[in-house]
Design goal:
mainly alpha; 2 domains; about 220 residues
Length: about 220
């Protein structure tokens, strides 16, 4: 394995590792001297720095060194990306996991929209996005980064449940009893017009963005 890919592995490990460490075992230790606001600033700076490392390491790695999975792979990737964007869009409102004011009331309320599919629609959106890139089998750099992001999303979602059980107690336990970690895909159609509209707009725009950023036609733009 060449030096560029080793650097990319290290960058992804740093991004994922610091997220896990700062979100869980180191959180209380850091909040005590820094305060909540100071911790959020440090957390954000570390996240930005490690993500920048991932970006520059990614761009330095070989762009297309695997055979790819052909048109079948692109079709599967496209079909995976649509629900990923819908779940992400549906996670932006009424999400008790975001730690916004009123989170405990949100957790005690009846799940609606994307939360009827899973209590972690944002994380599962990221995981499906990662899977869509893995099935393409396009390059080692994509495989490494997509695997890391998918791992972060799903393991992070599991760890988030444990953290919220401590922080929110009975409210989060109520949320867990009314929702599912694993997606109930049959309920995706009924998440509401808003998440579907926003998700489809994101799908069209972000797949188009592959052309100016990476000179790769993705999604529907591959066939138009």
């Amino acid at each position: 394995m060449n030096e560029a890919l080793l650097n990319l592995i290290a960058a992804n490990a740093a991004f994922v590792g610091t997220h896990f460490l700062m979100s869980h075992p180191l959180r209380a230790t850091l909040v005590k001297p820094l305060g909540d606001l100071g911790f959020q600033v440090v957390y954000s700076l570390v996240s930005i720095a490690t993500l920048a490392w991932v970006y520059f390491a990614f761009t330095a790695a070989p762009p297309a060194d695997l055979p790819g999975s052909g048109d079948i792979g692109w079709i599967v990737a496209t079909l995976l990306t649509i629900p990923a964007m819908v779940l992400f869009a549906g996670s932006l409102a009424g999400n008790p996991a975001l730690g916004l004011p009123g989170s405990e009331d949100m957790a005690r309320a009846e799940p609606k929209g994307a939360f009827r599919v899973t209590r972690h629609p944002m994380m599962w959106g990221f995981a499906l996005w990662a899977l869509s890139h893995l099935v393409l089998f396009w390059s080692m750099r994509t495989m490494i980064t997509a695997f890391a992001m998918g791992f972060l999303a799903l393991v992070g979602a599991h760890m988030q449940d444990r953290k919220k059980e401590v922080l929110m107690g009975e409210a989060w336990e109520t949320w867990e009893s009314h929702t599912s970690f694993w997606p109930r895909w049959s309920k995706l159609v009924g998440v509401g017009a808003g998440p579907w509209a926003i998700g489809l707009i994101l799908f069209v725009f972000l797949s188009w963005l592959h052309l100016p950023l990476g000179d790769i036609a993705a999604g529907i733009w591959r066939w138009f």
